[in-house]
Amino acid sequence: MAKCSACGKFLSPTGAATCSLCPLIFHRGCVAIPETAIVSKSWACPECKKKVRRGDNTITPVKGICGNESPHETVSLPVAGFSTSDVSHPEEDENELRAMRREMAEYMGELRREMVELRTSIAGFGQRLDSIECRLDVLEQNKNTIAQLKVEINERDQEALLSDLDIGCLPEEKGENVYHIVTILAAKLGVNIEERDIIFAERIGGISTNGAVSGGGTVERSRRVVVRFARRNLRDELLHAARVRRNLTASDLGLASPSALSRRIYINERLTRINRYLFYKVREECRKRNWRYSWTKRGRIFARQGDGKQVFAIRSENDLARVFEVEKV
Q: Structure pTM?
């Protein structure tokens, strides 16, 4: 099998480009001839083309190139439409291919470096994300710990109030003796208490109006009275008597005046500010859901839907949300 005189690779004589002046044959692609073109019988290879005299279409004698030429013979060769720029140069093509390979290798190397940097960055981001998640877990644990500590502190503060009572709607008079009023109230409930049994009794909060009208003006709402007893059993006895007799009013104590309204007096356990607000929310939820019972005992808040139902202890807003399925305040 013959070889291409340009690239040195084997080729089939069928369809090859054969020089009309020498025995050399070529791949069509090696001499820039389209595959679909018809090779002229007078076609000359690039080497023979170089021998064409300037100004004419004759070929200068080439010794031994075809074997039968006479040194003085000239051969006429048409060269119209063909230039040396149409001739493929394998060495230049190979150099260009090598350059492309080098450029591609450099590009791939740069791409690999960028991929390594990207993986390193992603790994760094992953580590930072893990660190943030750990910190969030710690914060969540701290948050739960803080919430638990708040509950424990509130319960400890509530224990300090176990000897106290909170009296509401007790008419307030200028220059009154709160100790004496408390003893009168206890006597009306059937509990014998002397002033020496009271550690302190005072009104707390600011004076406000309840919007009621009496004698042409608004009636000032009486401030709450807080009482601390020397013995807890006295407090418990008075609280029990108040829950038995629920309709005690200011007029029953002989304290009603033109500036005060006769309304029911409320006697309850004294709660911390947190428990007082929590008890208010429990009562509101029970009212909305038609739960029958909500009460306090020794400073703790309880709720029950009805007779024979489960009793729920409400210690925090989390318990409120769990029992009544409401959003945390």
A: 0.53
